[in-house]
Amino acid sequence: MNHKIILFLMPSLMFLKIKGIGVLYLPELISLFLFIQFFSKIILLYKDQLKTFILLIFLYLFVQVFSDLYRATPSEDYLRGWSNIIFFLIHTSTLFVLLSNDKNNFFIFGLGYVLGIILTTFYSPNIYFQGGSFWKFGYGTPITFLIALLTTSKFIQNNFIKILIFLSLAITNFYFGFRSLAGVCLFVSSILFIVNFNSIHNFLNNKKSIQYKIVSSILLIFILTYLVNSSYAYLAINEYLGVNEVARYKSQIGSLGILVGGRQEILTSIYAILNSPFIGYGSWAMNPFSDDLLQGLLLDFGYYNIQAFTYFDDRLPTHSHFFGAWVTAGIFGVFIWIWFLYNIFKALVLNSMKKDNWNGFFYFICILMTWKIFFSTFAGEARFYDAYYLCLILFIVNKPSLNEK
User: Fold this and answer.
1) Given CA atoms 94, 98, 102, 107 in this order, what sign does their dihedral have?
2) Which residue of 10, 319, 394, 401 shows the fewest CB atoms closer than 10 Å?
């Protein structure tokens, strides 16, 4: 079968899954088959472009296995944890071969990604979609992703138009209550605007090291984060965003800001890490602390109007690639995500140094994946989509020119 057809079908079929010890998606079986078929090519990649990746993913797997053995994790849980890491390795390796550092292939997979999420929404909608959150837990992600992908078209080359497109996506997502995706789009719009300044252009093209520029880009992201958060707080408190948003803001504000209020699991993750920074608690770890730990931490940090989440039952709550790896596998489990983040910021710098019609979409993927690493779980379909994001980011990093393919 033609590789381009496979690239489209794999993400399109993500709505088909098998439930056993965990959840296995049909495209994962296809990916496993292709991994075996492409193994000779993949081995060469492990010696070259994916050398660091393979070392760090095996380190992650090793410390996860060690933590599970040390904690005597039940087999049902450690099999889910190990397979999560192994399938991420398989997907990244397989997609790297299929995508072949070709923009057309990235575009085709992106279309399949959009169709797959839409089919999943109709075939197996989650409880939040069924409860009426149609945009945030249904249509918002595929529509936003599709529009971002279409900005790569030769018919949308004007940078000002792209700024307006991503700004419109930010406003739309915020209106429908999808604040995280709204923030991603607002960041993309801001970066597209900022890189137009001559001072920024001169800085990016001077002879300073790429590491210096990466550090500068990280500082810029922190500044943008502060400005966006402060602007949102001002608008919400003064009722410019409506009465409902005032109530929502007040229900999530505390001494550590609204990000922690909306991602309460960060508090329990940090608490768990401080108690055992080097050895993880095991895959799908049971909560070894008090049942009231999260509510107590919320009160300690000034979140007086928030009711603690209870969806995780007796498990140790995590909602982050980064903190989740640290909690389950220990400190060495986060190295893969630190490396991923390094490549994201390197990609942001390199993407800003060259004018290309894919700039906006590349920014979108970089910012989206940064959010996911810190504030989304690494499980289920994430291990498949993350592989696509990683291949795309490595494409930006490894290409001397974005116009080659």
Assistant:
1) negative
2) 401
Kindly state the helix (H) or strand (E) to which residue 24 belongs, with its residue range: strand 23-25
pLDDT at 404: 47
pTM tops 0.85: yes
Which amino acid appears at position 153 of this protein?
A: S
Letter for the amino acid at 275?
A: N
Residue type, 270: I
Contact 305, 356 (CB under 8 A): no
Both tokens assigned to 163: 């700024």
What does the alpha-carbon distance between residue 286 and residue 316 come to, in Å, rounded to a whole number?
5
For residue 333, give the nearest of 62, 46, 55 by alpha carbon.
62
Rounded CA separation 105/93 (Å)? 15
DSSP 3-state helix, strand, coil percentages of the chain (rounded to 5)?
Answer: 70, 0, 30
DSSP 262-299: H-THHHHHHHHHHH-SSS---TT-B--S-TTHHHHHHH
Structure tokens at 331: 């400190």
For residue 353, give both structure tokens: 């140094």
User: Tokens 């070392």 map to which residue?
Assistant: 55
Q: Decide: residue 72, CB within 10 A, 0-12 exposed, 13-18 middle, 19+ buried.
A: exposed
Tell me whether residue 348 is in a domain: yes
Residue 261 in any domain: the answer is: no
Q: How far is Cα of residue 181 from the mean position of the Cα atoms in its chain?
A: 11
Tens of pLDDT, residues 161-195: 999 999 999 999 999 989 999 999 999 999 999 99
- Please check whether residue 276 lies inside any domain of the structure: no
DSSP state of 334: G
Q: How many angstroms from the chain centroid is the CA of residue 219?
A: 20
Tell me which residue range forms the domain holding 81.
Answer: 3-246+321-398
What is d(CA 329, CA 38) in angstroms, rounded to the nearest whole number?
A: 30
Radius of gyration for the chain, computed over Cα atoms and rounded to the nearest angstrom: 21
Report how far Cα 335 is from the mean position of its chain's Cα atoms.
16
Evaluate if residue 401 carries a pLDDT over 70. no
Count CA within 13 A, CB hemisphere, residue 42. Answer: 19
293 belongs to a structural domain = no
| Total structural domains within the chain | 1
